[in-house]
C-alpha cells in the first residue's frame, strides 16, 4: 500500500533517481597536448566561464547568508540559555525577569493592601461584558433531511473497534472521533474500550463513566452502536480481540487515508481494530462528519447515573454556599499536584528538600527520562515561558487583583495539592470560602469513586461546567473540552479566565510592585479573557486547524440551536449535557 501525505500508518521506502547527487566517478583530466583549434576554443571560453563563476559565487554567498539568517535565532536562544542556565552564576548575568519564584515574598509585601482593599469589587453576575455578535447565517438543515442524504443505512461495511487511552477527556476525544470515523466508513461501532494505563491506574469501563443506553439511542439513525461483537465474529477470531486485524493509524490522519486505506480493509475483513485511538482523525472533515462529533460530545455522552447523581448534589451545594453572590461561584482547575510539579521541572520555594523530593518523584514516575544526556532541564526558562503550574497563592493574588473579593466562593478542581499545608494556606487567607469535592461530599458518598481517576474527574468537570467563572491554570484536555462545552452552553462565550502566565511571572518577580499597579495589569488580563471568550475561528469549507472540541462554533451551531429550543420548552433537557437538571 502506498502511504498518503499526512495520514498513512505506513512508511514509504526511499527510491533512487533524479534529484540527488550522482555517485559516478569524475571524468579523467584531458591530455596536455591539444590541437590549435582546441586551444583557440579554450581561449574564448573564459568570458563565459567567468560569468558562470560569478553566478556560482553569488549563489554560494546567498546560501551562506541564508544559513547565517537561520543561525541567528539559534545564537540568540543559546545566549538566552547562557543567561538563565547553570552558567549564569559563573558569568555574573542578572536573572531574567520572571525566572525566579518570588510570589510568596510579593504576597507578604502586599498582604495588608489586599486585605484592606475594598475598591472596584467585581460582581460575578457582571464579569462578562463582551457579547457575541451574531451574523446572518444559513438556516440549519432539517435533521430528517440530513438522515436521508448521509445516513440512510448505517453500518453496512462492518464493525469498528477502538481503544481509547488517556484520562477522562482524552478518552472523550477518542470516543467522539470514533463515532466520526464509524460514520465516515459506514461501520457499526462497538462501544469503545478504555485502555488501562500504569499512570492512571483506572480500571473504569465505558459504562462506569457514561450512560451506555443513552449513548446508543442518541446516535441511532446516524451511527449504529452495539455493546459487543456478534457471536459469529467472536468465534471466527477464537474469542480473542488480539486476533482481529489492528490498523496502526497515524495521528491526525485525513479523511482520504480512511477512505483509501482503512475502508478496503474493513470491507474485506468485516471487522477491524484501531488501537491506540487518540487524535487519530484530522480536524478538517466533511460537515456531516463534523456534526457527528458535535452530536456525540454535547448530547450522546452523558455521565452515568451514579456520577450524575453525586455531581448534581455537588453543584447544588456549591450554589447554596454561594448565597452571598446570588448562587454564582468560581471554579479553578488547579494543576499544582505532585506529579505535575515534578514533570514541569519548575522550582518553587521549598529549597533543597523540594529539589530532592522532586528528583525522587521524577525517577519513580518516569525512570531515567529526566537524566538522559540529551535532556536539558532549565527551570528558570520554563518559568519565563509560562510553563510552570500556578501555585494556589498565585491564583489567589490574580483573582483578588481582578476584583473578586473574599465573599466569593471558589471550587477547586484538583487531585491532591502538592504540600497543601504550605501552598494552600495563602489562598484561604484571600478566599476563605474554598471548596473541593472532598469537602462538599460525605466520605460515604465519595467512597464508590475513590481510586477511579476518570470518575472523580467527571465530578470536577460537572461542577466546573456549571460555574459562572472557570479558571484554567495549566492547559491540557480538561480545560480545552470544558471551554468548548461552556461555549456551546453559554451562547458562544467560554466564560473562562486564561492567565497570561508569561506576564504574571514577571509581575510576581518585582519586589517593588505596588498593589495598584498589579491590579491594573490583572484587570487588563480579565478583559482580555473576556474578549477571547467569544472568539470563533475562521473555518473555510472543511479547512479547520483549531479543535472543534475547544471551538465548537460554527459547525455545532445547528445542534446548539436545536437543543436550545428544546431547553426553552423543557428544562429537563439540560440533563443530557452533564447529568444535572436546570
UniProtKB/TrEMBL annotation:
Q: Does the keyword Coiled coil apply?
A: no
Which residues fall in a coiled-coil region? Answer: none
- Show the segment(s) annotated as Disordered: 1-48
Gene Ontology biological process terms from the UniProt entry: fucose metabolic process
A GO molecular function annotation here is: glycosyltransferase activity
Q: Which UniProt keywords apply?
A: Carbohydrate metabolism, Fucose metabolism, Glycosyltransferase, Membrane, Transferase, Transmembrane, Transmembrane helix
Database matches in InterPro entries? FucosylTrfase_pln (IPR024709), GDP-Fuc_O-FucTrfase (IPR019378)
**Pfam families registered for this protein in UniProt:** O-FucT
Q: Transmembrane ranges? A: 68-91
Family of the protein in this entry: Belongs to the glycosyltransferase GT106 family.
User: What is this protein identified as?
Assistant: O-fucosyltransferase family protein
* Organism whose genome encodes this protein: Phaseolus vulgaris (Kidney bean)
Amino acid at each position: 500500500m502506498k502511504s498518503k501525505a499526512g495520514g498513512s500508518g505506513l512508511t514509504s521506502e526511499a527510491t533512487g533517481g533524479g534529484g540527488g547527487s550522482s555517485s559516478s566517478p569524475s571524468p579523467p583530466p584531458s591530455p596536455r597536448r591539444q590541437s590549435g583549434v582546441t586551444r583557440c576554443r579554450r581561449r574564448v571560453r573564459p568570458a563565459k566561464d567567468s560569468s558562470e563563476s560569478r553566478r556560482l559565487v553569488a549563489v554560494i554567498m546567498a546560501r551562506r547568508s541564508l544559513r547565517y539568517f537561520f543561525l541567528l535565532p539559534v545564537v540568540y536562544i543559546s545566549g538566552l540559555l547562557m543567561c538563565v542556565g547553570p552558567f549564569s552564576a559563573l558569568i555574573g548575568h542578572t536573572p531574567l525577569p520572571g525566572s525566579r519564584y518570588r510570589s510568596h515574598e510579593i504576597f507578604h509585601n502586599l498582604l495588608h493592601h489586599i486585605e484592606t482593599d475594598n475598591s472596584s469589587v467585581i460582581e460575578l453576575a457582571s464579569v462578562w461584558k463582551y457579547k457575541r455578535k451574531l451574523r446572518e447565517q444559513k438556516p440549519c438543515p432539517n435533521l430528517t433531511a440530513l438522515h436521508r442524504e448521509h445516513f440512510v443505512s448505517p453500518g453496512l461495511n462492518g464493525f469498528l473497534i477502538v481503544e481509547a487511552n488517556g484520562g477522562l477527556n482524552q478518552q472523550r476525544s477518542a470516543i467522539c472521533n470514533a463515532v466520526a470515523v464509524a460514520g465516515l466508513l459506514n461501520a457499526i461501532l462497538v462501544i469503545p474500550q478504555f485502555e488501562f494505563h500504569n499512570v492512571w491506574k483506572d480500571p473504569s469501563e465505558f459504562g462506569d463513566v457514561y450512560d451506555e443506553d443513552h449513548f446508543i439511542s442518541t446516535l441511532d439513525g446516524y451511527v449504529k452502536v452495539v455493546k459487543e461483537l456478534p457471536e459469529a465474529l467472536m468465534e471466527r477470531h477464537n474469542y480473542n480481540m488480539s486476533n482481529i486485524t489492528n490498523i496502526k493509524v497515524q495521528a491526525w490522519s485525513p479523511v482520504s487515508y480512511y477512505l483509501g486505506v482503512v475502508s478496503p480493509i474493513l470491507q474485506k475483513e468485516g471487522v477491524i481494530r484501531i488501537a491506540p485511538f487518540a487524535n487519530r482523525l484530522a480536524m478538517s472533515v466533511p460537515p456531516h462528519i463534523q456534526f457527528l462529533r458535535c452530536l456525540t460530545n454535547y448530547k450522546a455522552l452523558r455521565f452515568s447515573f451514579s456520577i450524575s447523581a453525586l455531581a448534581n448534589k455537588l453543584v447544588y451545594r456549591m450554589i447554596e454556599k454561594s448565597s452571598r453572590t446570588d448562587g454564582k461561584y468560581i471554579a479553578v482547575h488547579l494543576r499544582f499536584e505532585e506529579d505535575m510539579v515534578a514533570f514541569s521541572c519548575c522550582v518553587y520555594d521549598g529549597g533543597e528538600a523540594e529539589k530532592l523530593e522532586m528528583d525522587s518523584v521524577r525517577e519513580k514516575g518516569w525512570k531515567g527520562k529526566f537524566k538522559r544526556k540529551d535532556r536539558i532541564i532549565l527551570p528558570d526558562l520554563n518559568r519565563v515561558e509560562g510553563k510552570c503550574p500556578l501555585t494556589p497563592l498565585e491564583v489567589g493574588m490574580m483573582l483578588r487583583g481582578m476584583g473578586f473579593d473574599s465573599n466569593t466562593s471558589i471550587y477547586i478542581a484538583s487531585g491532591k495539592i502538592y504540600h497543601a499545608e504550605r501552598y494552600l494556606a495563602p489562598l484561604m487567607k484571600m478566599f476563605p470560602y474554598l471548596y473541593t469535592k472532598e469537602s462538599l461530599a460525605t466520605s460515604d458518598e465519595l467512597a464508590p469513586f475513590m481510586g477511579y481517576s476518570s470518575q472523580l474527574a467527571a465530578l470536577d468537570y460537572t461542577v466546573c461546567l456549571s460555574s459562572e467563572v472557570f479558571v484554567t491554570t495549566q492547559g491540557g484536555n480538561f480545560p480545552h473540552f470544558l471551554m468548548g462545552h461552556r461555549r456551546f452552553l453559554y451562547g458562544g462565550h467560554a466564560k473562562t479566565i486564561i492567565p497570561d502566565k508569561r506576564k504574571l511571572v514577571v509581575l510576581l518577580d518585582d519586589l517593588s510592585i505596588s498593589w495598584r499597579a498589579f491590579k491594573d495589569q490583572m484587570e487588563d488580563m480579565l478583559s482580555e479573557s473576556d474578549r477571547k471568550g467569544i472568539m470563533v475561528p475562521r473555518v473555510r469549507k472543511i479547512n479547520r486547524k483549531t479543535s472543534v472540541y475547544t471551538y465548537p462554533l460554527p459547525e455545532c451551531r445547528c445542534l446548539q440551536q436545536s437543543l436550545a429550543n428544546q431547553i426553552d420548552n423543557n428544562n429537563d433537557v439540560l440533563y443530557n449535557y452533564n447529568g444535572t437538571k436546570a
